[in-house]
């Protein structure tokens, strides 16, 4: 009973709206979907995703290891074999938690790496599908990072370091938990009961928002049940109307079966979503440096990782199509970001030091791409258009057919001190740019800045 009362108090909040409030959202998708997205998010363009939890300890298969080992039927034989060859008979998944030491976790060092990557926001897994919380959740006794494992408030420690570097801080939260008894009971009842939602999920989620004030809530684990089971619209109405982050928070679209690419704040649609053309709604591509997993894998290989050029090309394409780019790394159980991941992040930041003008606060142009000489992706900012080449031209010239030129057209190369010579392809349309010897570029991509064109 106490749990239900707490949930109602948290979600309803103080309904006495002040005179200054002009918009209040009701608990239905028509109202919630009409909320404007806070401007910081679209301006930021780049975020870092971090998958870290008990799943980092076995470090095998992926963050779905527990489910693949003991949840799905039949179990994954690779996971069964891994456990039988490396752990004693009867070893249970919760026994991994004390080994989640995080003894080398330095939030200041992590935040320095994320700042150096050029990212403007950071999203940490507060709770993945295994149910383990990286903070002292009062609704997850003895299955959280303060009661066991590192005995630290990982969410709070990283949040403080990230915000001290003027980065926005967000939290990933899984709605469902694979093996929680209350969830399994509701599932058995065809989701006609909501014991898990009322006693576990909503009190925990609301507490997390009030305690840590995340500016992104990256929801997941929603697909087994409708949004009415999760009470998603009631939670979002509280979040947008009365929570401590009501004016700045952004959310994604994973709030119940059928919500993806349809309801919520920005759209994820699916993992590693890449639209073929410019979407009408703000979206985000989440992807991982490790192409096989979001969490840490002990046996990952170099050829299974995204190289720097692939990351930059992916970022440029995403931003040209109006999206944000959320790039994931999986730290080790002792709290280190693997050096290869750090190298990728710092390389990305070095490229953005030169070319970030074409990325941050940009908007899609009237044409997103062309591929006459080499692949080129367009972004714009006011009256300026940027054309980013993701391949080095074989000749010292670049043909661009889409821009409409004028006598005042000016072309420069970001990171190069002198204007570039150009000539029209047709009267007032298209241009041939004479390229200098292209300077070294991390990721082998270069950006032309075009002024005085349409």
Labels describing this entry:
single chain, 454 residues, alpha/beta, seven-stranded parallel β-sheet, six-stranded antiparallel β-sheet, 16 strands, globular
Secondary-structure map:
Layout lengths: L1 H11 L16 H4 L6 H6 L1 E5 L14 H6 L6 H10 L20 H10 L4 E7 L26 H10 L4 E7 L6 H8 L6 H18 L3 E5 L6 H4 L1 H10 L8 E2 L31 E6 L19 H13 L2 E7 L9 H17 L7 E8 L5 E6 L2 E6 L7 E4 L9 E4 L5 E2 L1 E5 L2 E6 L11 E6 L3
Helix pairs in contact: 1-9, 6-7, 6-13, 8-9
Written account of the structure:
There is one protein chain. With 454 residues, the chain is α/β, with parallel strands linked by helices. The chain has helices at 2-12, 29-32, 39-44, 65-70, 77-86, 107-116, 154-163, 181-188, 195-212, 227-230, 232-241, 308-320, 339-355; strands at 46-50, 121-127, 168-174, 216-220, 250-251, 283-288, 323-329, 363-370, 376-381, 384-389, 397-400, 410-413, 419-420, 422-426, 429-434, 446-451. Strand 9 and strand 10 form a beta hairpin. The longest helix has 18 residues, at 195-212. It starts with a helix and ends with a strand. 48% of the residues are buried. Mean pLDDT is 94; it is low at 14-20.
């Amino acid at each position: 009973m106490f749990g239900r009362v707490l949930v109602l108090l948290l979600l309803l909040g103080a309904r006495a709206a002040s005179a200054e409030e002009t918009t209040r959202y009701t608990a239905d998708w028509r109202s919630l979907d009409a909320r404007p997205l806070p401007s910081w998010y679209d301006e930021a363009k780049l975020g870092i995703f971090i998958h870290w939890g008990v799943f980092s300890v076995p470090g095998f298969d992926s963050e779905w290891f527990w489910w693949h080992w003991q949840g799905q039927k039949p179990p994954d034989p690779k996971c069964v074999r891994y456990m039988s060859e490396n752990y004693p008979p009867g070893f249970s998944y919760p026994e991994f938690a004390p080994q989640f030491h995080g003894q080398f976790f330095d939030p200041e060092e992590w935040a320095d790496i994320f700042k150096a990557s050029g990212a403007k926001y950071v999203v940490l897994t507060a709770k993945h599908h295994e149910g383990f919380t990286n903070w002292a959740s009062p609704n997850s006794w003895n299955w959280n990072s303060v009661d066991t494992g590192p005995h630290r408030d990982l969410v709070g420690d990283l949040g403080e370091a990230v915000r001290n570097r003027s980065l926005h801080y967000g939290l990933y939260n899984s709605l469902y938990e694979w093996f929680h008894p209350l969830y399994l009971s509701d599932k058995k009842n065809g989701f006609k009961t909501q014991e898990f939602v009322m006693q576990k999920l909503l009190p925990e989620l609301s507490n997390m928002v009030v305690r840590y004030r995340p500016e992104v809530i990256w929801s997941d684990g929603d697909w087994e049940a409708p949004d009415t089971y999760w009470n998603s619209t009631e939670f979002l109405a509280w979040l947008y109307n009365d929570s401590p982050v009501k004016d700045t928070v952004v959310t994604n679209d994973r709030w119940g079966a059928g919500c993806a690419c349809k309801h919520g704040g920005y759209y994820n649609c699916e993992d590693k979503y890449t639209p073929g053309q410019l979407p009408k709604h703000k979206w985000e591509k989440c992807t991982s440096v490790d192409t096989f997993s979001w969490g840490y894998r002990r046996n990952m290989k170099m050829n299974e990782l995204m190289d720097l050029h692939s990351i930059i090309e992916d970022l440029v394409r995403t931003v040209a199509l109006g999206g944000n780019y959320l790039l994931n790394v999986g730290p080790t159980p002792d709290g280190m970001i693997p050096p290869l991941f750090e190298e990728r992040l710092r390389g990305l930041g070095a490229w953005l030091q030169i070319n970030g003008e074409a990325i941050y606060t940009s908007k899609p142009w009237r044409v997103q791409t062309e591929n006459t000489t080499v692949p080129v992706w367009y972004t714009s900012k006011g009256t300026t258009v940027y054309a980013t080449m993701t391949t080095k031209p074989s000749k010292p010239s670049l043909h661009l057919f889409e821009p409409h030129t004028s006598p005042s057209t000016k072309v420069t190369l970001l990171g190069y001190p002198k204007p570039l010579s150009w000539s029209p392809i047709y009267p007032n349309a298209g241009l041939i740019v004479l390229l200098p010897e292209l300077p070294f570029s991390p990721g082998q991509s270069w950006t032309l800045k075009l002024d005085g064109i349409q």
